[in-house]
Amino acid sequence: MKRTHYATQIGIAQIGLEVVLNGWVNTRRDHGGLIFIDLRDRSGIIQAVCNPELDQAAFAVAEQVRGEHVIAVRGTVQRRPADTENPNLKTGMVEISVAQLQVFNKAKTPPFYIENNIEVDENLRLKYRYLDLRRPEMMDNLMLRHRIVKSIRDFLDDRDFVEVETPVLTSSTPEGARDYLVPSRVHPGRFYGLPQSPQIFKQMLMVAGLDKYFQIARCFRDEDLRADRQPEFTQLDMEMSFIDEEDVFSLVEELMTVLFKQIDRPIKTPFPRIRYDEAMARYGSDAPDLRFGLEIVDLTEILKDAQFKVFSQAVQNGGVVRAINARGCASWTRREIDEMGKMAVDNGAKGMAWIACTENELKSPITKFLNQAEIDGIMSALDAKAGDLLLFGADSVAVVNRVMGFLRLELARRLKLAEPQELNFTWVYDFPLVEYDDEEERYVAVHHMFTSPRPEDIELLETEPLKVKARAYDLVLNGTEIGGGSIRIHRRDWQEMMFARVGMSMEEAGEKFGYMLEAFEYGTPPHGGIAFGIDRLLMIMAGRQSIRDVIAFPKTQSAACPLTGAPSRVSSRQLRELALKVKEK
Length: 585
Prior knowledge:
By secondary structure, the protein is an alpha+beta fold. It contains 17 helices and 22 strands. It has an 8-stranded mixed beta sheet, with helices on both faces. Strands 1-2-3-5-4 form a 5-stranded mixed beta barrel. Helix 10 (334-346) packs across helix 12 and helix 14 (492-501) packs antiparallel against helix 15 (506-519).
């Protein structure tokens, strides 16, 4: 009773052939004289028919089987009667006439139905993940993941890339998200850090002369989670020597074309490009969703002297006034407008001004504070017409970008402006190299400390660091950053300047990255690369709303595993061996 075929390998061409299938009972239907079993394996479902006139023993077994029993059937492939064909099944034209039926194992009634589109609490699904993965849509996600990762490996192998594994137990890095730490038994009081990325090692491989490296790497970050984040995730990591940004862009665009052909979704190249400053000003985000308009318009110059103090004082304090035209939304109720205002406040705004453009007048609490020239300027800049609703933000640049970017996405969601089937890739580049962290009272790297500044900006690193642009780039798909990279620093003097600019002493730099600085003295080639979140990419390709749906055994948003109970307590003996003691809260 060993399998000869998977279910969906059987079709019209196999009629008359004796086959053996192994799988689970998806459904069982007793029609009196006949028992129909839908057998499910990882490929799909096929119907098996048990007829007592053909084999009494098999029919007797069929009377006892229930859903999720594990079975084997031997029988002959036959065409279904014309009035019983099922166009919704890949195998809907054929069925198996069963001659032998064996039960390998019985099953309890599952806690939820093993079918698509179930409405079940996600924690229950994760607790019984082995059952959740039996559902066809989840199995399809795993199969898609396999095909995409294989295609990545084949694509890069054809282009002379070499796959190299880098350490999982390494030294903790001081920047970025919090590290997961692993205590050392052999070296009491010392810890390994799990890698947030293979950044240092891939640069060392370029120093070593590997020239073209890639890895399907496991990465770890101890950060607050959401739908597109996990504490452990999979990254496609690539690094190349003697290249510039254009080489990275062309390689990635070719790779994306190959990958999306796997799901029959052709894409257009080259991808459009947008500078970081322009993306923030027009869309309020460094990962803009360009499937729709709703561009943010700057009104600072028009409203800098307005009697409406919310506007004028924001400008006097070095801020900006910007607005979005929500076309056709003037008919919204005051309650709906107030809901948007509350969302603005939740994202850091002090409030939200608005103007509803009706056929006969402008309705708003603020128009009485604006003169005609200011009103005309607003209407012209926003191309406002009767029926439009204008939403304003006035504050610091950072707050206005965050608030208006959020409102733009919320408007698109409410108005259903984003076409789900559209694939809009965009390169975002010319990021700032550093930004000032008010909490830490120092400059921090926008990407990471090993990103190269533009050569023409290097002198500004000492005097005007906020004006320095990085040779960094992100690839954005439908408003989600799926990949990011940069041309790296390959000179010791530049790297030391960068360490100093983010507040790291030479002693600390030597302690944490001395080996890297020394490596740069042994002939380091110019190099750069990019990394992609495979989970995020697959989430979009599979049309899912959470990366948990494309990971076999993910964690919850609290970084817990309902299946295994991780994280779990450990014994006092284990703690003693590690020279650790847990302080209870």
